[in-house]
Model the fold of this input.
Amino acid sequence: MISAWRDVPSLYSSRERAALAWAEAVTRLVDQHVPDAVYEQALSEVELAELTLAVISINGWNRLNIAFCTPAGQYQSNAGS
Done:
């Protein structure tokens, strides 16, 4: 249901919806910024900073997997070989 979070508001608390809106806005960066309405939702600046770092990390790993055509769950380290 995570992909339909906007369509089923009763499944998520207001804080969870704020976090999902922030993660989506930071990922998409429509018009190269996060809309003020998303910024002004019920999360503290510390929470926004921590969530932003998590989103950046997840997006970075996703982009690496896309760039190297690595299917989810298929990475195998060659460390120790």
Notes: The chain has a mean pLDDT of 89. Residues 44-71 form one domain.
